[in-house]
Amino acid sequence: MQVLDFLKASHQLPEKYKSLTKVEMENEVKRIKEQMGDRLFIPGHHYQKDEVIQFADVTGDSLQLAQLAQANTKAEYIVFCGVHFMAETADMLTNQKQKVILPDMRAGCSMADMANIDQTENCWTSLQQTFGDTIVPITYVNSTAAIKAFVGKNGGATVTSSNATKIVEWAFTQKERILFLPDQHLGRNTAYDLGIPLDAMAIWNPISNQLKYEGDVTQIRVILWKGHCSVHENFSVANVENNRETDAERKIIVHPECSWEVVQAADYAGSTKYIIDKISKSAPQSKWAIGTEMNLVKRLIKDNPDKDITSLNPFMCPCLTMNRIDLPHLLWALESAEQGVITNQVIVDHETTEAAKSALEQMLIHT
After folding, report:
1. How do the domains of the chain map onto residue ranges?
2. Phi-psi bin for 132: left (phi > 0), alpha (psi -120 to 50), beta?
């Protein structure tokens, strides 16, 4: 389901929530959480604002949160504080009695929406004509349920930023080539780490419906979808160089959704969990510049007062779509659930769910 579909199904925040004070909203959220008890489960993504994350029952990456929701069979209402593709995954993994709610349906993901099912099917048809049955489709979990289902139907798997290397390695035991959706940077960085040269990687442009590659196409091993994270793509090599010039002792750590050039220039690169673990286990007084979402960087600064931490680019904005989940929308979702009125429920149909779960399960088997 794309953002526009969500918007059609969503409702606007009632006016009353716009006039409440922060203290009033926080007290009401606390009351509802206590009142509903085990009937309510609130997963919160690492990139959420503090005003929301303070009420999360668990925090983590998108797939981790969906799996925790799946394991929590007592919860009747799962109020997912993340973005729409995350809530879709939670709905696919939880049972039919559970209701997954996204507090604000405008909380989308620009990367996930860079690959829709029509574009993907057109791409696949073209690639099959060029390369025959030599390609395994792989999709980042940061993709819509429809894309996950497409990958599942075609023998592929999902990946996370933590396990992408293992899954891409597995994919090459299945076919000669992979199609990596929708983040070209994670795909390129992962393939390069496995020893695949850049000149064996092509770009698929979904807008022009064309393969971009200079040379003999039979040499292509990786086809990268032209998509990206709007936050991570904005970190630059110049940011790295400026930090090096300012303080040579400061280590630079970035997310693999950053460009290949930035990842190569950094000292370390890894998933959100990798970044959190690396910082928390580092020596006191160590210095870090972190290339990832600003809410998380600020939280790492607060949680590690014994370290000198800054953003790789301190002028970066937080993830704007993720930040649509705020305290008023959270309270609205909780009050509605308490009253038995379901607002902004995310539902994935059975056929899509079964095919998408095939891609998810293929990933879990091989990690």
Report:
1. 3-108+321-348, 112-229, 232-311
2. left
